[in-house]
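User: Here's a chain of 712 residues. Predict its fold as tokens.
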Amino acid sequence: MSTDNKTKKNSHAAQVHWDEKGLPYSTRFDDIYFSKDDGIAESRYVFLDANRLKERWDQHSIDSTFSIGETGFGTGLNFLLAWQLWNKHDHNKNAQLHFISVEKYPLSKNDLTKALALWPELSALSQKLINAYPPQPLQGIHRLNFYDDNISLTLSFGDAAEGFQQLAPISKAGPHVSSSPCAIGSLRPQIDAWFLDGFAPSKNPEMWKDALFSAIKNLSGRSTTFATFTAASAVRKQLIAIGFECQKIKGFGRKREMLIGKFSVEEKQKGRKPEVDEQTTPTHFRDHKHQKIDAEPSWHLNRFSSNKKVEHCIVIGGGLAGCHTAFALAKKNIRVTLLEKNNTLAMEASGNRQGVVYAKLSPHNSPLNTFNLAALLYASQFYHSLGLYEKCGDACGVLHLAINDNLRTQYQAFCETFRESPDFSRWLTAEECEAVSGVPSTFPALYLPQTGWLSPAPLCLELVKSERIEVRTESKVSGLQNDGNQWEVTYTNKANSTETVYADAVVLANAHAASEIEQSQHLPLKKIRGQVSHIPSTTSSKELRKVICGDGYISPALNNCHSLGATFNLHEYGTGLTARDHRQNLDKLTSLSPALTSNIDTSLALDGKVGFRCTTPDYFPIVGSIADYSSMKERFAFYRKKANATIDNYGAYHHHLYANLGHGARGLCYIPLASEVLASAIAGQVLPISRDLYRHMAPGRFIIRDLMRNKI
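Assistant: Prediction complete.
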């Protein structure tokens, strides 16, 4: 981010004073974080007991997710106590807890650690939270999964109202979209219990505003309850206005009263316009010249007609995207049939010996930079939490060399932003790079100590180790169609016979081969050749302990062999290794660290691998529902006449047909988050990214852009 943005982000840090008893106090709001008498007892009484969590979990459906929404994450105490109660509960192994919390002024990791040390009984869970806690200062939405306990935590750092609006499924556009059920996927997310925490309304009136209550309404349903420490009449009136039945009960300790309640579906339905069929709804628009409105695009939204859950999904493609997608779906209790045309997984672009968990990091605040950082943070936590670095690679650390002045400026500014999180990123001089990497360095670098390299083939095998995932190799898909109820996928098996498999949903994760499927032919997928070279380790190179990235990369030796590369060969489609590309990879390596190539016998015929990256014109991956090309063009045709019109309509999408494509050279970094986004949409859960950021990934974006540019 620029200096202005950096200052802005730092302004959102919590301002904490520690009193004589070692308890945290907010100087910004002149208020306590929790009761000085007994913070744990207060939290249990006000939020866990008042929402009847134990009683409701006794009755909870065996394969469903229970979601808690919280205003004010603070020290994380409410989350940890809910987690503790969940672990003590004798629920089915498939039941999951999803805790969603917003926090405008998050604690630093140091302050969080100090606060959580006050509760020794929570130390085991506290340490897991501290280990996964995102570096500060950081804004936006972040998903932390604690798979051992079937717990997910979605943290939104920023304004509470804006955070829940970004998580809510309903657009702020005109009356057609905002008055009808809609979602990113096909199911509407719902919060089951609200913890309305945060500092008191008298201390923090900015949080308790109309927009927050509107977002709460949009995320509530028939069984939703709430509890809050406050009994302020303004809060009670707002809750009643959005459809909650409110009741005052005895407050905790010396506090006289607090509020609890349950959502009234009948109240929510009052005033709703009759819904009309999606296909016959006229397209409305509003001209910005004549009327100012607070609107956002709605073309990425689906209108759904039922609450039928996806129970079985077919994933086409057995590379990184397909296997990550299958894993994410299986973790959300969705059965998966994975079809791979080759005789084993990760044979094509995902088949390199060593791949780097790499993202292009920048201090500048753009959507692509935001996505890169979010993807890297999610991937790092994902691989560490599952022990995948130990099983399939090495979290040895990655050096992003500043090979020019522009990169030096950017990387230094990035490290300065996260200067309080040295375990996440550090700026190293060339001399310091040599000290940590073991080899001489020509350049200074941005150092990411928690990332590293992975072997994609073993990784893919680990990801599909689930009783919910069936892998069918040598299964080349020839066509798919929907009969209005389910998808029928036809493929040729290893015996060259035709077979058919049926499922509720289909995900295309087969890279540029998706262009061969009728429903996805319109996607602008590009095929770019890349060659990786394998060189035997030398006396000098054996000392390399870190991945080095610059104009090319090299990884530490695996079985006495380094992987380096990779070339970008536009408009070349040969599959054979070329001496020219080996030479290019070696030249790039020499520019990064001459010592690494000084003892290589260049007369030897080098081994390597050729793969074809699947990329997109805007460098964002393609993730989400696949648009019905003809219907989408018709529905949003007015964009041809006025590109900045606000068209208040749903997108036109193939029902339960999704894509996870176009990750280019950053698959190991991008795909974990992309798969979690996709699985969340399919399962009807809130996304791990903002709705604004999702639109940059949504498959329908290219149709909308081409209409606006009058290209189609």
